[in-house]
Design brief:
single chain, 345 residues, Isopropylmalate Dehydrogenase, two-stranded antiparallel ribbon, 12 helices, binds nicotinamide-adenine-dinucleotide, binds 3-isopropylmalic acid, binds manganese (II) ion
Length: 345
């Protein structure tokens, strides 16, 4: 049956990397017998410009009807002081679709290991997942701003914590069977509840080791001993910050994909980085984060592991052949990077 994929290109480098992701999919699909159609809708700043809202009704309806969603990036400095921002569309989409589980894999490409700012012995063996809670916490509590006062509320229910912890334990079962739960239990009530629930959920997974880590020291360990992690699970804000920090291990944000899953309904696949306004429109963005997001979609939403493996192998082969975008210290354009990957598919 034909699978429906919704493509949300968004802003900045979004359209450039989305085109690359879809080109890889178009090249691979006939080779693996994948039958699909792509619908494109306005989202983010592009949608504000068109209809005055970052998540138009038509886009939301299309998202709910899709089998999977690809999102490139949203955001632009032009909306920094605007009453409605592109980011609100992204948060609303995550909430509307119930995309509570955001999976951000951190792996070092062998061919790129020399690009990491860390010493080779520190990044040897780095391969972990950040499981970020995506529909709760301070992102979705009350935000209140006055001239002399501001408040942001951080809230978590037991049920919200329980389900993301279970996601982390399930992921750990497929890997090295270790979960590191990251919180700020020495200060925050939400973190105290988080830690209690983590300990309770762990009882259902006796084959998986659970350790707790405070977020400040976890940030330090991510640089001094990143190979110690297998599955990290943490609340929305900590996960946002730690996953960008983790991207430095691999040398660039430009190779970092993610998947976001709901209890049921379509999953969404997007790079972890933003719209990179500083390089937008120059044809130099690294498309690998988007291309690897397509691979995650094939594996998670359509059970096409072989297709996903082929994309990942083609990316590695293109890197090994020395085709590197500027963020990786090379001089390949987006188009040249894309062509090298397609040639290796
Ligand atoms: P950013 O992630 O857009 O960029 C950070 C740095 O990484 C920049 O120097 C950029 O050039 C570089 N970079 C990012 N992706 C790259 C790629 N594929 N290839 C090469 N270089 C790349 O973060 P920012 O500048 O802080 O934010 C810009 C806008 O993006 C903001 O409006 C922010 O809210 C938004 N944002 C959106 C998403 C999303 O759509 N999911 C995620 C993060 C930030
Ligand atoms: C991300 C982004 C978003 C977030 C922004 C754009 C709202 O930084 O996907 O990591 O903070 O979740
Ligand atoms: Mn982020």
């Amino acid at each position: 049956m034909t699978k429906k994929i919704l493509a949300l290109a968004g802003d900045g480098i979004g359209p450039e990397i989305m085109a690359a992701g879809l080109a890889v999919l178009a090249s691979l699909a006939p080779k693996i017998g994948f039958d699909y159609q792509v619908e494109e809708e306005a989202f983010g700043g592009a949608a504000i410009d068109q209809v005055g809202h970052p998540l138009p009704d038509k886009t939301l309806v299309a998202a709910k009807q899709a089998d999977a969603i690809l999102l490139a990036a949203i955001g632009s400095p032009q909306y920094d002081q605007a009453p409605i921002r592109p980011e609100q569309g992204l948060l609303a989409l995550r909430k509307e679709l119930g995309l509570f589980a955001n999976i951000r894999p951190v792996k070092i490409f062998g061919s790129l290991s020399h690009l990491s700012p860390l010493k080779p012995e520190r990044i040897a063996g780095v391969d972990f997942l950040v499981v970020r809670e995506l529909t709760g916490g301070i992102y979705f509590g009350e935000h209140h701003l006055e001239t002399e006062f501001a408040r942001d509320v951080n809230e978590y229910s037991r049920a919200e914590i329980d389900r993301i912890l279970r996601t982390a334990f399930e992921e750990a079962r497929k890997r090295k069977k270790k979960v590191t739960s990251i919180d700020k239990q020495n200060v925050l009530a939400t973190s105290k509840l988080w830690r209690q629930v983590a300990d309770q959920v762990a009882e259902d997974y006796p084959d998986v080791v659970l350790e707790h880590q405070l977020v400040d020291s976890a940030a330090m360990l991510m640089i001094t001993n990143p190979a110690k992690f297998d599955v990290i699970v943490t609340e929305n804000l900590f996960g946002d910050i730690l996953s960008d920090e983790a991207s430095v291990l691999s040398g660039t944000l430009g190779v970092m994909p993610s998947a976001s899953h709901a209890v049921d309904g379509p999953s969404l696949y997007e790079p972890i980085h933003g719209s990179a306004p500083d390089i937008a429109g120059k044809g130099i963005a690294n498309p690998v984060s988007m291309i690897l997001s397509v691979a995650m979609m094939l594996r998670d939403s359509f059970g096409l592991s072989e297709g996903a493996d082929r994309i990942e192998a083609a990316v590695e082969a293109a890197f090994l052949a020395g085709v590197l975008t500027q963020d990786l210290g090379g001089n390949a354009s987006t188009q040249e990077m894309l062509e090298a990957i397609i040639n290796h598919l």
